[in-house]
Amino acid sequence: MWEKYPLRDRYDVVIIGAGVHGLSTAYYLAKQGVTNVAVIDKGYVGGGASGRNTAIIRANYLTPEGIPFFRESLRLYEDLSIELDFNLLFDQSGRLDLGHTDSAVFGLRMRTGMNRLLGVDSRMIGPAEIKELMPAIDLRKGKHLPVLAALYQSSAGVIRHDAVVWGYGRGADRLGVEIHPFTEVTGIVRAGGRVTGVVVGDRTVHADTVMSATAGWSSNIARMVDLKLPIVTHPLQAFVTEPLKPFIDRSVSSANLHVYVYQTDRGEVVVGGGVDPYSSYSQRSTLHTLEELAANTLELFPFLRGVNVMRQWAGLCDMSPDYAPILGEVDGLPGFMLSCGWGTWGFKAGPIAGFTMAELIATGKTPDLIKPFNLRRFGEGKLVNERAAAPAAAVH
Questions:
Q1: Residue 21, exposed/middle/buried by CB under 10 A (0-12, 13-18, 19+)?
Q2: Is residue 126 over pLDDT 80?
Q3: Which residues pair with 151 in a beta bridge?
Q4: Could you tell me which CATH number the domain at 93-154+232-319 has?
Q5: What is the C-alpha to C-alpha distance for residues 395 and 274, in angstroms, rounded to an integer?
Q6: What is 10-54+161-230+321-395's CATH number, 3.40.1190.20, 1.25.60.10, 3.40.50.1820, 3.50.50.60?
Q7: What is the CA radius of gyration of the chain?
Q8: Inter-residue contact 69 to 60 (CB < 8 Å)
Q9: What's the pLDDT tens digit per position in 148-161?
Q10: How far apart are CA 169 and CA 148, in angstroms?
Q11: Tell me: the pLDDT tens digits for 251-263?
């Protein structure tokens, strides 16, 4: 998939983090002719959040900043198997976001209107069409949280997360990028008021540009340059059941129930929700979260009550105050780039984040699509407030 190289003393660009964001940035940099690039990771390729998410792709966000960004990422995903010459198992089957209360339905209507204005194929549907699209769902009246309506995005889908990482890694390698797994960055070097490289073991690796793409560990990397980021790291848990005969062919999410569900091609039912309400770097699963996610899933699909859970896992999310990413240069610290603050929605943005960050590094000009996501917005009071970022974002 990719070659092994000795770590050299100098690169044009060093990217910390060999997940979807780091590798996609490296790939698109190489496509623009910047091939003297090293992607460094303390673990294996894709071993962080890229390998611990639930692989849902969508663009039905809320804000005029977030919707075009995720819309373009979805468009890149649509052609990514061809672009990378690698089967990514992309299933563009659609998604339902359920509303169980009047206020939830109002929020979905607001999102639908913004989506349609900005080129995303969202529409509101009622219980009859929900049942037609998803016959297995329980729409009985008189329940604590009856299903009143849903936002339906037909172009949403799921994709094999490991394959995306492998495809970008192989593609970057073929274009001349070096990938260095099991290589830990322990420091960042500064000289003359700018970042000039990284420390790996007892060596200094020089670079014109250093980019952090380390998701939940972004705060730790930022502290190496005395930068305090406005993000908090939370665990995010999910589980998968034993394989079942197909009963659902699209993903479904409920903000009121704090749960989302879809079924894989192998028949497993994938269940996830919002971040844990406490800050931690632990990636251990908890029984409490399993019970809560299972109970909320049974509100939608009661017939799953006897199904066995096969695996449970947790990843780390770097939550920003406005539920939007932090992308671009750091004022007063030339040579240092950030791709962080991804929370629960980072995998969806992998292609477009890599594409735009590569353009910024290669040209020195910030693409319009990511200008709203700069770090300085927190000091300037220009927060994005992307509250449609996760089914239970209000937990944070």
A1: buried
A2: yes
A3: 97, 124
A4: 3.30.9.10
A5: 7
A6: 3.50.50.60
A7: 21
A8: no
A9: 999 999 999 999 99
A10: 44
A11: 999 999 999 999 9
